[in-house]
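// run 5 | inverse folding | seed 20
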């Protein structure tokens, strides 16, 4: 599955669904964003069970502000509607794969108990 563009219209619906949703906040003028894009796309093809969303911070300024994006690229990971990771900076392939494994391995009952 290739990545999908997210907007204010479908962002909440997408990240609140069951399963894993990764969201890359990026901009076309951002060098590190452009460097991370092929890594992100390749991972989207290798993990068809995960939603790989992308938010263009230039086109979706209100959404970026609501998500408190201060630096790009910023990667967020949601699992079963819960934000479990948010960090600025481009990840190498191995780092992104490690993050995906960590999100898959989360005990969501434990996560929900901690956030309650």
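// decoded
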């Amino acid at each position: 599955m290739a990545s999908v563009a997210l907007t204010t219209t479908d962002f909440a619906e997408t990240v609140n669904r069951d399963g894993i949703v990764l969201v890359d906040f990026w901009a076309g003028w951002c060098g590190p964003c452009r460097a991370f894009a092929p890594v992100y796309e390749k991972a989207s093809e290798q993990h068809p069970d995960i939603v790989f969303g992308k938010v263009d911070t230039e086109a979706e300024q209100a959404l970026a502000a609501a998500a408190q994006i201060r630096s790009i690229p910023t990667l967020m990971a949601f699992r079963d509607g819960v934000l479990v990771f948010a960090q600025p900076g481009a990840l190498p392939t191995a780092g992104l794969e490690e993050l995906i494994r960590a999100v898959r391995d989360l005990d969501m009952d434990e996560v929900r108990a901690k956030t309650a």
